[in-house]
Sequence to fold (385 residues):
Amino acid sequence: MSVSYSSSDGDEFSLHTATNVDHGPTDELPDDDSFQDHRPRLLIMGLRRSGKSSIRRVVFHKLPANETLYLRSTQRLEKDNITSFVNFQVWDFPGQEFPFNPVFDVQEIFGEYGALIFVIDAQDDYGEALARLHEIMIHAYRINSELAFEVFIHKVDALSDDYKLDTQRNIHQRTMDALSDAELEIEPRFHLTSIYDHSIFEAFSKVIQKLIPQLPTLENLLNSLCATSGIDKAFLFDVNSKIYIATDRAPVDMQTYEICSDMIDVIMDVSEIYRPVNEDAQNIGGAAGAAESTNSSVMMDRADDTAATIQLTNGVVLALKGVNRFLALVCILRAENYGKHGLLEYNFQCFKQAIAEVFEVKRMSTERLKQENLRMVAEASTAQV
Ligand SMILES: Nc1nc2c(ncn2[C@@H]2O[C@H](COP(=O)(O)OP(=O)(O)OP(=O)(O)O)[C@@H](O)[C@H]2O)c(=O)[nH]1
Fold:
């Protein structure tokens, strides 16, 4: 296997880790609090010990899966602001609380655009969890019919393939029966997940994709890129979380996804080792912070110029290209197609430019919305005077 890296700004390795407790504001969205509260929201709910905090820590905080054994039970609502190509919030709701208790403001919890992820421990008797799921869905739908409902049938790592499918079928059937009894036309999605493999990242990818209005445009761009460059499969990854936000139309098979996702880890690890010495010096303080923080994340500063290729012994080439601070394209292609390097590079630059334009349109519409809000507030206060 051969590995090569390049970066046009002179850094040989420009991917590196950084600590970022709140994941920080971005240039892409205005960062005043009133505005951030309207980020799309992922609500994670489920019974106690079903695995909610483990999922949040593994996906968004890079906690190794086996360290979740030592997590304490969540006592109060925990919120993460995730800053990436789109900003969103993740709310971890304590398992012992019922969200429709009068102490909670249900409008605040369920009123925002986003998804409700309900986690069911598939290793346990899930009767009680199902009853809770149905109750929450029925109530939440009446508050916000736009909410997407996602059911994670979790901890499936210890289950046989047959048992997994039986469990999924059973949970699906019972849920659809409960919804039809309540005369609601909700279409929840069901995902088999575990923090011990890539399934949890794949499930989150699907959840997030549903919340991205630009998804069809991104998919079309990826389709064109693959068709014109001889690429067999391409994923557009959010590098921090390893969630893929879009892929081309070729079916996703787990092995391809895993190898592309692992490539990001390999490049991160190698670039961490070979990070320039002066960056090490700057980051000594940061390293101490990283040890204390559970919320360290991997950032691709200056990553728009990052490129890496890995050639496997079977002739397949994995290519990674940084698209912007948050996104990287990882694709699989045959060695003979990778040989047409100029064509590939040209097409990739066109792709990158198109992505920048897609997000620029979004930034401008967000900016316009913000100006409109400010104008309305100003008008209201003038009217009061
Ligand atoms: N085998 C297996 N165990 C898991 C998985 N995910 C989480 N766990 C374990 O499940 C236990 C409970 O996980 P938590 O994340 O604390 O559960 P929680 O739902 O946040 O619990 P509360 O905070 O009490 O609501 C921990 O021991 C985790 O290691 C998984 O995918 N597979």
Observations:
- Residues 1-36, 281-301 have pLDDT under 50 and may be disordered.
- The chain is about 45% helix and 20% strand.
- The CA atoms of residues 231 and 333 lie 5 Å apart.
